[in-house]
Design goal:
Elements: E1 5-6, H1 8-15, H2 19-27, E2 34-35, E3 41-44, H3 45-53
Antiparallel strand pairs: 1-3, 2-3
Helix pairs in contact: 1-2
């Protein structure tokens, strides 16, 4: 598997926002996330790029946060 996985700091840097904003997007199911437990998150670089290509919205009404 050659899939790049990002942490919240890296996504925040990519989007030029504070890390807390990333966590807010996770809590409100607005960004695709891989949940590794209750408070550990990882992000697929590919899913983030697709999300950005969609204008920062999930196609399933914000319900497809688990990738």
């Amino acid at each position: 598997m050659n899939r790049q996985i990002l942490v919240a700091d890296e996504v925040a840097e990519l989007l030029r926002v504070d890390k807390q904003r990333i966590y807010e997007l996770v809590r409100t199911n607005q960004i695709p996330v891989i949940r590794l437990g209750e408070r550990q998150y990882r992000f697929s670089a590919e899913a983030i790029q697709q999300w950005l290509g969609n204008g920062g919205t999930n196609r399933n009404g914000g319900k497809d946060g688990n990738h």
